[in-house]
Amino acid sequence: MSPPRPAPIQRILDLLEQEQGAVHKDWGGRIPLALVFANHYHVAMANLGYQALYGLLNAPEDLVCERVTWEGWGQAPLSMESQRPLADFPVWAISMPFELDYIHLVDLIRQSGTPLWAQEREDGDPLLLGGGVAPSANPEPVAPFLDAIVVGEAEEVLDEILGVLRASSGVPRPQILAALAGIAGVYVPTLHDGSPIRRRWVRDLSTFATTSVVLTPQSEFGDVYLIEIARGCRWGCRFCLAGHLTRPPRFRSLEQLRPQIEEGLRYRERVGLVGAAVSDHPQLDEMVRAIRDLGGGFSVASLRADQLSPVLLEGLRQSGTRTLTLAPEVGSAGLARSINKGFGREELLRAVDMAVRAGLHRLKLYFMIGLPGETDEDIRAIAALVREVRERQGGGSLSLSVTPFVPKAHTPLQWAPMAPAEALERRRQWLGGELRPLRIAVEGESVDWSRVQGVLARGDRRLAGVLAAMKKRSLGQWRRALRQAGLSEEEYLRQREPQEAFPWEIIEPGVGRDYLWREWQRARQGRPSPPCDPEAGCSRCALGPSCTGSPPAL
Q: C-alpha distances in angstroms, 139 versus 314, 464, 504?
């Protein structure tokens, strides 16, 4: 009888048994890369960007890419495909979509036995390459831990990075770093001269597919095959990082997507349509009909209330969707104009009426509290709006997600303060109490951890020392480490000065500071702005002529 396997290895083998699509390659003659996700397995497998990168990195014959996820504080990280220690991989590609993943990153590096600080690594140590939405916006809190950081969309820069890696055998580490630093859009903190790193982005999405690669029931989207139909968003909501960092809006045509839909329906009964603003796709109704004609269903994460159609809603109902998710964000018209949401009460109620007529009786609404200029009256407006929704909805279920506003780098609200914790807690508790008689559940992210996210989102390199001092992920450890470093949350969560230099401006995302400042002033005045329209020659945000006409013709 063979000896029992160690628990972490057995857990990985159990997960592999449930997967479809995992790539297993022999290491002989190939460059091994660890594709690291600094969060749990089920979170990683729900992230389409991580999945797509896994497929891209395993496509070349001379590479072998294996997945590594963070599975708990102090656990030695092992790869999924061969259960090798993370330190065995000479190159790590680390995906970090969320700022709170920075805490897990430090733990992963430590538990692998790799030197934590990039400047202490030598020849023979792994090369750590970071990327994702969070470090693309502001890499500084984790810059001292990473050898290089990809700013923007990986597909645009991947071939150049792989060219450096293929030529790196036997090359001293400083020369490899210098070669990486020579690639536009790659930030090498130990060699950087202070000039801005310009975000790289893909002009034409039709040159590649972005779909699920590994399917597993152990994921939030385990029953669907994910397909990216669009990238970027035109609406310019002033709080939204993704809406500014992924400009301009780009769409994949139905002609290109049809084979991906057919492939997805071979493995799952439904496809999940992914994009920052799915309901903006100009061929969405035709796409819905095509999916239904193929005998399949579809799902979407959330939709704009003012962009719904009967075809879309009926297709969702026929696909088995029971809950329609909408994000009005605010309850008052004044705050809606301030954040440039682009729709308000009338549009939301019209959407509720359409959903009820389509047979979608369960609703989930997303709201945000703590926005600049918010008053108690704005919170009362949320409750009033929710009551109206409940009346229109009839007997269906209704739930609310109420999350604190977190100011993000490279958005118009990067100058804004984060509301005090006491005010956020008081307003959320009031909402919960006010709506409880209507049997409406109010949930949302922790206020305390939202503040940690806010510090990291607009942080500087001093926070690397704070992260390094944490012995586990806990608020007590975080606050103790901050105090020991002589820092405070308030220092980072305060309102910023007009001419203040920001640590994240080492990144040049293409959306200019002057534009963001004008939008911040318009926010304070409660004045909306028109949506982005590259095809009409819009150049307000300073991404300018480079994006004009970039979306492929549909």
A: 43, 11, 7
For residue 79, give the nearest of 69, 64, 94 by alpha carbon.
69
Distance of CA 5 to CAs 12, 14, 18, Å? 11, 12, 18
pLDDT tens readout for residues 253-295: 999 999 999 999 999 999 999 999 899 999 999 999 999 999 9
Contact 255, 551 (CB under 8 A): no
Rounded distance between C-alpha atoms, residue 467 and residue 99, angstroms: 12
Distance CA 229, CA 141 (A): 32
Query: Helix (H, G, I), strand (E, B), or coil: what is residue 368?
Result: strand
H or E, element range at 73 = none
Residue with tokens 């329906």: 265
3-class secondary-structure state, position 36? strand
* Contacts (Cβ under 8 Å, ≥6 apart) of 28: none
The helix/strand/coil state of 477 is helix
- Both ends of the chain: CA-CA distance in Å? 62
- State which amino acid sits at residue 368: M
Find all residues with CB under 8 Å of 59, minimum gap 6, and list them: none
Tokens of 110: 């430590």
Calculate the alpha carbon distances from 95 to 46, 274, 363 in Å.
13, 18, 32
Mean residue pLDDT across the chain: 94
Q: Torsions phi, psi of 373, nearest 5?
A: 85, 0
pLDDT band at 537 (very low <50, low <70, confident <90, very high): low
- Are the C-beta atoms of residues 319 and 363 closer than 8 Å to each other? no
User: In Å, what is the CA distance from 162 to each residue of 56, 211, 234?
Assistant: 11, 22, 32
For residues 26 and 24, what is the distance between their CA atoms, to the nearest angstrom? 7
Mean pLDDT computed over 470-476: 95
Please tell me whether residue 435 adopts helix, strand or coil conformation.
Answer: helix
Helix or strand run (H / E) with residue 17 = helix 7-17
- 551, pLDDT greater than 60: no
- Strand 186-187 relative to strand 148-150: parallel, antiparallel, unpaired? antiparallel
Q: How far apart are CA 507 and CA 131, in angstroms?
A: 13
Structure tokens at 139: 């890499």
Instruction: Output the DSSP codes for 181-238.
Output: HTSTTEE-GGG--SPPEEPB--S-GGGS--B--SB-SSSTTTTEEEEE-EE--SS--T
Q: Among the residues of 282-375, which ranges form H helices?
A: 284-293, 310-318, 333-338, 345-357
Residue labelled with tokens 């089920």 = 42
Domain boundaries, the chain: 7-198
For residue 111, which of 69, 142, 76, 67 has the smallest C-alpha distance? 76
Q: Is the peptide bond before 172 cis (omega within 30 degrees of 0)?
A: no
Q: Which structure tokens are listed for 456?
A: 């990291």
Model-level pTM? Answer: 0.95
Residue 464 one-letter amino acid: A
**Using CA atoms, how far apart are residues 78 and 69, in angstroms rounded to an integer?**
8
